[in-house]
Design brief:
The chain has about 150 residues and is mainly beta. It is about 10% helix and about 30% strand. The protein contains two helices and seven strands, in the order ααβββββββ.
Length: about 150
């Protein structure tokens, strides 16, 4: 069983703490087979990017869905009609169907996805509502009320 220490990422990322915890917890499950490989990048203070290697998939074969705090990325290859079936001598490019789930932190939204050069790039933005942001409370000097 392969384990990975995610502790250095905790210092460098904001909003993905739960993702690293979940990656640790799914390491023994069938879903964590490593396909397709992906990177999680920090693109700014509140911006993140997930880059997945999806060589051989067309835009129409990929589906990116966000529901609450879960991001689901699926790839379904078009079924072959039997006549164009290729005979491979060696097949090193995996073209199998996949489903990848990511647990997103609170207030993280998907802002876009694009496919270029075999890489699916999903842009994420953490948008903290105004009522959740810290605010400064002014301190004023005044006279204390005297009671006699």
């Amino acid at each position: 069983m392969r384990t990975f220490d995610y502790s250095p990422f905790y210092r460098a990322t904001v909003g993905f703490d739960r993702v690293f915890d979940l990656l640790d917890s799914v390491s023994g499950q069938a879903n964590a087979n490593g396909y397709p490989p992906y990177n999680i990048e920090k693109a700014g203070d509140n911006a993140y990017r997930i880059v997945m290697a999806v060589a051989g998939f067309a835009e129409a074969e990929l589906n990116v869905t966000q529901k609450e705090n879960e991001l689901l990325v699926t790839g379904q290859t078009a079924p072959a009609n039997g006549q164009d079936e290729k005979q491979y001598l060696y097949r090193g490019i995996a073209g199998r169907n996949f489903e990848r789930r990511f647990q997103l932190a609170d207030h993280v939204k998907v802002t876009g996805a694009k496919l270029a050069n075999g890489l699916l790039t999903i842009e994420l933005q953490r948008e903290i509502p105004e009522e959740k942001k810290p605010r400064a409370i002014p301190v004023t000097a005044g006279q204390a009320a005297l009671t006699h």
